[in-house]
Design a protein that fits this description.
This protein has 99 residues and is mainly alpha-helical. It has a domain at 3-49. 53% of the residues lie in helices and 6% in strands. It has helices spanning 3-10, 14-23, 40-49, 57-67, 86-98; strands spanning 30-32, 35-37. The chain has a two-stranded antiparallel sheet. A hairpin with a 2-residue loop joins strand 1 (30-32) and strand 2.
Length: 99
């Protein structure tokens, strides 16, 4: 099937499919010269691989709490000033120098 047909089947644009291909995402495809084609079976297989089970709010909170760890100063890892961004690293450096 053509890229246009695949995009319509997925409810996406051909631009989105192109972006996915360049990022290694999306369904498998076949490239012949400049033409991109999709096998309907590959699209359905990919769609099924995207299926997720809903989780309860309690499970979501538990997963979030497990993922957030303390960095030792009472702040969550990744919180402002924890060193993730350039500004955060500078702030952390200033705090260390002040200690």
């Amino acid at each position: 099937m053509t890229e246009e047909e695949a995009a319509k089947m997925l409810g996406k644009t051909t631009r989105t499919l192109g972006n996915w291909r360049s990022q290694g995402l999306g369904p498998r495809y076949l490239k012949i010269g400049k033409n991109v084609e999709y096998d309907p079976a590959d699209i359905e297989e990919w769609r099924q691989s995207q299926r997720r089970e809903p989780i309860s709010a309690a499970e979501r909170r538990a997963a979030k709490d497990k993922a957030v760890t303390s960095n030792g100063n009472g702040h969550r890892a990744g919180a402002r000033g924890a060193g993730g961004s350039p500004a955060g690293r500078q702030a952390a450096s200033r705090r260390r120098q002040a200690e």
